[in-house]
Design brief:
heterodimer, A: 331 residues, alpha/beta, Rossmann fold, 7-stranded mixed β-sheet, 14 strands, 21% strand, globular, B: 482 residues, 3 domains, 6-stranded mixed β-sheet, two-stranded antiparallel sheet, 9% strand, disordered C terminus, thiamine pyrophosphate (chain A), pyruvate dehydrogenase (acetyl-transferring) activity (chain A), oxidoreductase (chain A), pyruvate (chain A)
Chain lengths: 331, 482
Amino acid sequence: MPRLLRHELLMFEALREGLGEEMERDPNVCVIGEDVGDYGGSYKVTKGFSEKFGSWRVLDTPIAENSFTGMAIGAAMTGLRPVVEGMNMGFLLLAYNQIANNCGMLHYTSGGQFTIPVVIRGPGGVGRQLGAEHSQRLESYFQSVPGLQMVACSTPYNAKGLMKAAIRCENPVILYEHVLLYNLKEKIPDEEYTCCLEEAEMVRPGTDITILTYSRMRYHVTQAAKTLVDRGYDPEIIDIRSLKPFDMYTIGESVKKTHRVLIVEECMRTGGIGASLRSAIMESFWDELDGPIGCLSSQDVPTPYSGPLEELTVVQPHQIVTAVENLCGKK
Amino acid sequence: MAKRMQGIMESIQTLCSGDHGNEGFMQDDEDEEEENGVGRLTSWAELLGFGLAVFSEAIAPQLQCFCDRTLGFAVGQGGSREAWIKAVAMAMSLVRKAVKKGWVGALAPAARVMSQALSTASEPITLDIPVPFKAHKVETPSVTVETSAQELTNFFKTMFIMRRMEIAADSLYKSKFIRGFCHLYDGQEAVCVGMEAALNDKDCIITAYRDHCTHLGRGGSVLEVFAELMGRKDGCSLGKGGSMHMYNKKGGFYGGNGIVGAQTPLGAGLAFAQKYLKVEGVTLAMYGDGAANQGQLFEAMNISALWNLPVIYVCENNHYGMGTAEWRSAKSPEYYKRGDYIPGLKVDGMDCLAVKQAVKYAKEYALQNGPMVLEMDTYRYHGHSMSDPGSTYRTRDEISGVRQERDPIERIRKLLLSNNIATVAELKTMEKEAKKEVEDALSKAKESPSPDSDELFTHVYRKGYGAKAYGADRKEVVVKLP
């Protein structure tokens, strides 16, 4: 790739850049959420927006997720493009009815008359001792809702690209950010770009095993990969990015090459993204597999407050190394 | 009525005879201006007879819109006698043109204008609303309402069609053409018909699942409703929505929602968009007495009052939330006061004119000041849905009592008769026409096919444009996505 002009920024700044560019480009884009306006957003994603775009386009809501999500959906039916911010993804559980029944289904039940170009975004995932109710992973809860698209960003580059693409998309998109990734630093291009919403990202090409991951676990995987390379393995790491629909094309090409799969995810074992992905791969690529598909997920427990216990709930790099060794055989 | 007719006839004859005398039906005069192209008459009876004779002929499309403009002109002029005379004059010049060009069929619209000139004048009528409004933190609107013969006749016709449609849906359900849930609106017709009289196409309506008649009021057709109820292709939602999911984007009707109360925040969103895009319109977010206890309604009221959104919350209080009477589910059944800081009005929901007056008043208020609550005191004759007999929690006497004393269609019928707008025979004709319209739509809907199998997967996602964001079938599909 030619050396283009680049600038360095943090993940939350990348999200802010993407959102700001889209708001300038299209006056119908507006942000609705708690403390997004004057406060600048609890993770500073919308800092400065209220002065720039006015308080009508960066709307501070009362603490009423059900109704302001519903309001955003109603506004989207007429052609506005609201971006709903859940201060923490877990709070959007209060708006589950609006997201599942109205957001996902209105395009279908109206026979195609209405589109809901809404983006629902917010930080989720296990943080640093935030407690059980603030460490929710909602990707598993929303994945069965028909009509929704789900993407998870993991780097400043894809965060900005996915934010822009999600806003321009005519379908309702849920953009999953992670509480612990907001301060990641990276150099991104100066010129405008978007990422494809349904595409997976190749992190590290390899030949021995396909490791599929997303969001924060990408970094645990890359960390484990260092150990694995030292031990003589050559893992192919793919950040699936698109949680619904899965990029079965990229995943399939990889499986045909390596014949072994390990899924590393942060959501719960039961009914998680890994569970769906595992059965999708098995159904389509059974003949290509040399062994069972491994799946490392978080434990099926409420996230405890205590630090060491919290570490035990999520997948750690050494567990990934062990899993790869078991799947590929010792070298 | 007879006196008015005579007056019009005399004026037109004076206008028409002028200097020319009675020389025959139509004189071909090349020099006459369009506006003065009245032509010469022998008698009204002849002209009327001629007009009615071609009434059922095919209409030449070129003259159709001219006729519509004629009618629009007459109504737009406020419906004064002078205006109607002008309209008839224009129509007669049309007739002259048509005869000249040999378009016999084009006379139908002209005849329509003329027969309407005689039958339904648009002179204003002032009436008083019998049941007074009750107000909360706002002044009550005046009980004197202006209407016209045409408006009252339209009320009658529309409500009658709605009533026939709902009753037809009842028998369709019992003969298993309609499955699942079917919530009928008969008894409550005055609410949606009265509302429409005060709204225009810039306004939005969103309601719950009892939406068949609301869909009709917003411009939907009876065929669309029946086809959707039976799950056929020609339904308004292509057969994929069903009874509870009827929408009409062009007409500003946003559904059709199954979950109780979930439409109220959506309504706040529609009003938000109207304010954001600076559209001079209001949103009517309708809900029932059962939904009035939902938390999301209070949340929606709070945010709409906070930001002065032009939304009117319309509570259709039919006194029963399925099987639970209002006094058993609400500590305070005064739903118009539930908005607390939001003003409210209680309206007799069985009276079209009261509904029209209240909505007109609320619209003016909402465009200036923000939300308002309207409680429509109405009643449903059927049970909550077709699976509910409707008599286990209320007495049959109560139902028949309301039907006798407060039925909205009977009320308009009495007004039409007492104000000499229509005779009993004319009303019977209107009823017959309405029945026929509903039956025709029903038979057409029954012929409509079921949607094709691949319709199952359409409209789940929508292809986007601009950025590279597509639906599920973006690339070469190696696997079939579920």
